[in-house]
Amino acid sequence: LKIEDIKAIVDEKVVRVGETSVAKVNGIPIGLKHPHQGKTQAKGQRIQQTCNFFREAFIESPDEDLRKISVVGVANFHEAAAICTAAFGRTMLGIMTASQVFDTKFENNFNKVVEFGMAKVKVEFNEAGQFLSASVQYSMKSADEIANEDKRIAFQDELSNELVSRQCLELSKLFNVQWR
Q1: CB 40: neighbour CB atoms within 10 A?
Q2: CA nearest neighbour of 112 among 103, 101, 121, 100
Q3: Nearest in space to 168 (alpha carbons), one of 179, 157, 155
Q4: 66 with 58: CB under 8 angstroms?
Q5: Bridge partner list, 81
Q6: Three-state SS sequence of the chain
Q7: What is the pLDDT of residues 129-177, one digit of tens each?
Q8: With 28 labelled, which of 36, 74, 112, 130 sits at a CA distance of 20 to 30 A?
């Protein structure tokens, strides 16, 4: 692979700090944000802020999918939580994903104990595409449950561009989604 090919794969699959993205998974538009927010806050507050961002940012959009975003993914805080927020008759599910990197120097230097792992989300919509209900299950209880394919990333003290690029390339072969 040429460096341009690797860069294109990473740009397509990774949501960077501060970026806003919308991906369709199984035809459902999902808002994704990796906010640059420090300081200790309640998990629910971060989720609520991000849901409000998507609710307000696309309210006037000509793209109906953007106006109808009902599921929002929040990254960057190394914690796992899911809450529903409601405003103006519209309910949104906000899912804060945990860390995909386990026990790094970064977390240890800040006395952080991180939650890690993937979230399995089941969402029910009515015929008009409005959110009805959801269940969220966080997958891991210990580091022993990390998939073998992810261990080379999850247990690194530092992530190199090569490791992330290789992981993105392998994931793009397994899953037909626009992001990770």
Answers
A1: 5
A2: 103
A3: 179
A4: yes
A5: 96
A6: CCHHHHHHHHHHHCCCCCCEEEEEECCEEEEEECCCCCCCCCHHHHHHHHHHHHHHHCCCCCCHHHHCCCEEEECCCCCCEEEEEEECCEEEEEEECCECCCCCHHHHHCCCCCCECCEEEEEEECCCCCEEEEEEEECCCCHHHCCHHHHHHHCCCCCCHHHHHHHHHHHHHHCCCCCC
A7: 888 899 888 766 666 666 677 777 767 777 777 877 777 777 677 665 5
A8: 36
Which amino acid type is present at position 16? R
For residue 36, what are the contacts with CB-CB under 8 A and spacing of at least 6? 17, 18, 76
Give the amino acid at 85: T
Mean pLDDT, residues 25-32? 80
Residue type, 80: A
73 half-sphere exposure, CB direction, 13 A CA radius: 25
User: pTM here?
Assistant: 0.63
